Amino acid sequence: MNKITLITGATSGIGYACAQRFASEGHNLIITGRRKERLNNLSSELKEKYGVNVLSLNFDIREQKKVVEAIASLPDDWKKIDILVNNAGLAAGLNPIQTGVIDDWEQMIDTNVKGLLYMTRAIAPLMIEQLRGHIINIGSIAGKEVYPNGNVYCATKHAVNALTKGIRIDLVQHGIRVSQIAPGAVETEFSEVRFKGDTEKARQVYRGYEPLHAEDIAEVTYYVTTLPAHVTVNDLVIMPTAQASATVMHKE
Ligand code: NDP
Ligand code: 8X3
Predict the structure, then answer these.
(1) 153 carries an active-site annotation
(2) How much helix, strand and coil, in percent to the nearest 5, is found in the chain?
(3) Does the pTM of the predicted model rise above 0.90?
(4) Angstrom distance (rounded) from CA 82 to CA 59
(5) For ligand 1, is residue 34 a contact (CB within 6 Å)?
(6) Does residue 251 belong to any structural domain of this protein?
(7) CB 3.0-4.6 Å disulfide test: which of 46, 71, 206, 226 passes with 23?
């Protein structure tokens, strides 16, 4: 039977690339995001290209009630989720703490930490019923190191790092695998979002070296799901070759 994979934040970047990768391997997909038109387009494309079934759930991950309603709305067959990719997330702003924008902080904490928790809380019981499942959290090098002005974003990704360990401990008795993929710089819409639509500033982040591509992350995310059931990749840090740490980048 085809596996069912749920990917949050599939409208762009890493989530979009994961949707393509998992669909290319015959997974039926549940894709989520706020941008409905993108979800609809992706859904049609994947069905046509790979012949898989795709279900779109259009909600803001910060709204716990909407998360619960969305998962409850799934037909019973679709509740047998094999893989949850907790990918939806963002950085908003890059300010020192003393000029930090409170709304940016709320948005990052609510999306990256609380959104991930809401999804996990809704789906872990369904996996427990099946005595199997794999939760993959998209963390970051920002969850391993802290860089100037990264303060709150880094804190949210440190929280993802800690939660990955905590969720694994709580679910080990149910045979559920829990992994974190922690990438360095990946060229997606991430920096455009961080710099609030300033495309030139966003482009600068990826200039002078080859950053990771969303497809690179999709590849390793898919890879960790292909290992035998008794094998779990707990944590996988993946960087552009030109990036040695959060702050050391070799640029031409
Ligand atoms: P993108 O901006 O390209 O994609 C982010 C995705 O998250 C979109 O699909 C967006 O969907 C979704 N999302 C954001 N906020 C919400 C929300 N409130 N409710 C529902 N969905 C939401 O960035 P990336 O692909 O780069 O980011 C994906 C993940 O990877 C994030 O967790 C990020 O922190 C992490 N990451 C990124 C790195 C990078 O360098 N790019 C490096 C390390 C980690 P929509 O707007 O439609 O809601
Ligand atoms: C995104 C990569 O280095 O901007 O998590 O934090 S970084």
Answers:
(1) yes
(2) 50, 15, 35
(3) yes
(4) 21
(5) yes
(6) no
(7) 46
